[in-house]
Design goal:
It is found in: Cell junction, Focal adhesion; Cell membrane; Cytoplasm; Endoplasmic reticulum membrane. By secondary structure, the protein is of the alpha/beta class. It has 17 helices and 15 strands. The strands form 3 sheets. Strands 8-3-4-7-6-5-9 form a 7-stranded antiparallel β-sheet. The protein has a 6-stranded parallel β-sheet with strand order 13-12-11-10-14-15, sandwiched between helices. It has a two-stranded antiparallel ribbon with strand order 1-2. β3 and β4 (265-271) form a beta hairpin. The longest helix has 35 residues, at 5-39.
């Protein structure tokens, strides 16, 4: 029966409007009260006592990438089961063609080629397209493809939009049907002039007399599509988030400084109106001059403060996108840096910033003792943390920071040498030299030289050759911080991350709990 929208509005519209207004008003009141308790400075100590900002909940959210990968693998596994079952069904439709119930068949005749059935039905054609898209998305998500050619991963992963559209169409064909009149035609009933071969003639006559006869022919119709019940909610949330992010990143940022550092690292300083961020967060960059559709995440190495309104990132030139982006920023390969007054700014490419987004590194300050381990350019999440400590450490819960930085080349330490030295001098002046335990390791010994500059002497005294002895470091931290929770934060190669993760789960440090947190953008 068709539904009249006009009649429905006249009969049902009033009560539904009142319901929507009531729910909306309650939602607004809840959000107003929640934001007051959550953001109000007057409730800061209440947060700490009641645990409103739960560290455990935040750490679970940091596992979102792992959960995303697990969901993707589960989709692929159950898709194989789904496709295999339907391939069996197609063969059965062909071999066991029913002359008795022609409308129930998908095959047009007995013995029809199953391949022809697949290629001439809506479920078959859309099913092939879905399998193809899923195969492309799954294979292009492998680590080797993401590292060697990120663009392939990016574009194939965005095929999920096409995947969802085809998925909704996939069920329209109605290959599987159900009986609609099983009361008038009970399953297995006897039609006129028909006997059951499994029963005797006397039993068949008795069944007809008991009402087990068919009063009409069986009627079938396809199952009602229910895919939208599973897809519509997540898609609406996704679209709302994309719209919000588009509005937030609509205005391009102003590039105020570009600095070339050793080992193919570029520092970028930008200015964005009303941009607020916390140490450890990251942003997503989009440069239409390089690619209108590609977005790349970069950790903030400098957050806007009351003294300085600019935000900064350090990016390593690896891959097509960063190479092209660097060429647009510094056309002259020999230029070391370009910091011009605003009135003399040349035309930089348009750059859009989305964010900031939270990450596990934000929790560094929520432990009394934290261990930060960086490998090469993986130091960027902790650079902003060091900047925050340079501005003032007293209002943080953190009372001791172990900072380990491992690099292949000695020149890499110059990226943040001035920052580390400035923090070292500040803590010595405040009589807190033990607040920061700094350890620098250089793993490549070919043509090794020391940091000879006088202004970087605090770094040269903490520079060691080789790799860290992680077990000894954890034993030292465990002895000096018994019955405490130590936050372990890692951003670097998988080998280091795997080793630290294993040590955090070890039971050899009695009385000390090491909570592992990992940064990853690959």
């Amino acid at each position: 029966m068709a539904l009249s929208v006009r009649s429905w509005v006249a009969n049902e519209g009033g009560k539904h409007l009142v319901l929507v207004l009531w729910l909306g008003a309650n939602t607004l009141l809840f959000m107003r009260t929640f934001l007051m308790y959550y953001c109000g400075q007057q409730y800061h100590y209440l947060h700490q006592m009641l645990g409103v900002r739960s560290r455990k909940a935040r750490r679970l959210l940091d596992k979102s990438k792992t959960f995303h990968v697990a969901c993707g693998v589960a989709i692929c596994v159950f898709s194989v089961v789904h496709v295999s079952a339907h391939l069996v069904n197609v063969v059965n439709f062909s071999v066991r063609y029913s002359e008795e119930f022609p409308s129930l068949n998908v095959a047009r005749y007995r013995g029809e080629d199953p391949r022809l059935i697949i290629l001439t039905t809506v479920p078959g054609i859309t099913g092939i397209l879905l399998v193809l898209i899923l195969f492309l998305m799954f294979t292009a998500s492998s680590y080797c493809i993401r590292v060697s050619n990120y663009e392939i991963f990016w574009y194939t992963h965005n095929l999920f939009i096409v995947f969802y559209i085809i998925l909704i169409v996939h069920v329209v064909g109605g290959a599987l049907k159900y009986q609609t009149n099983f009361e008038a035609h009970p399953p297995g009933c006897l039609r006129a002039n028909q006997t059951n071969p499994d029963k005797t003639e006397e039993e068949s006559g008795q069944a007809v007399g008991d009402g087990w006869s068919c009063r009409e022919e069986a009627r079938f119709q396809p199952n009602s599509p229910e895919t939208w019940l599973w897809v519509s909610g997540p898609l609406c949330l996704y679209c709302a988030e994309r719209l919000y992010r588009y509005i937030r990143s609509y205005s391009p940022v102003t590039i105020v400084a570009v600095v070339r550092h050793p080992c193919d690292v570029i520092e970028l300083r930008m200015l964005k109106k009303d941009f607020k961020a916390h140490p450890g967060q990251y942003i997503v960059l989009n440069c239409p001059s390089v690619s209108s559709f590609e977005n790349h995440p970069f950790t903030l190495t400098a957050c806007p403060t009351e003294k300085k309104e600019t935000l900064g990132i350090h990016l390593r030139v690896v891959g097509d996108w960063t190479e092209r982006f660097t060429e647009l920023l510094l056309p002259d390969p020999g230029a070391e840096s370009e910091i011009l007054p605003m009135v003399q700014q040349r035309r930089y490419p348009k750059l859009y910033v989305d964010g900031p987004f939270g990450s596990s590194s934000q929790e560094v300050f929520n432990y009394e003792v934290s261990l930060c381990v960086a490998g090469g350019i993986g130091v960027t999440p902790f650079a902003c943390v060091l900047h925050a400590l340079l501005d003032g450490w007293r209002h943080f819960r953190l009372r001791r920071l172990y900072f380990v930085w491992v690099c292949r080349e000695l020149q890499s330490f110059y990226w943040f040498a001035e920052l580390l030295c400035a923090l070292h001098h500040k803590l010595w002046k405040e009589n807190r030299p033990d607040y920061l335990n700094l350890q620098l390791f250089v793993s490549q010994t070919d043509g090794l030289q020391n940091i000879s500059e006088e202004r970087y002497r605090p770094l040269s005294s903490r520079l060691m050759i080789g790799r860290p002895r992680w077990k000894l470091l954890f034993e030292e931290i465990g002895r000096t911080n018994k019955h405490k929770r130590v936050g372990v934060f890692c951003c670097g190669p998988k080998g280091i991350s795997r080793t630290l993760h294993g040590l955090c789960n070890s039971d050899r440090y009695s009385g000390t709990t090491f909570e592992f947190n990992k940064e990853s953008f690959s």
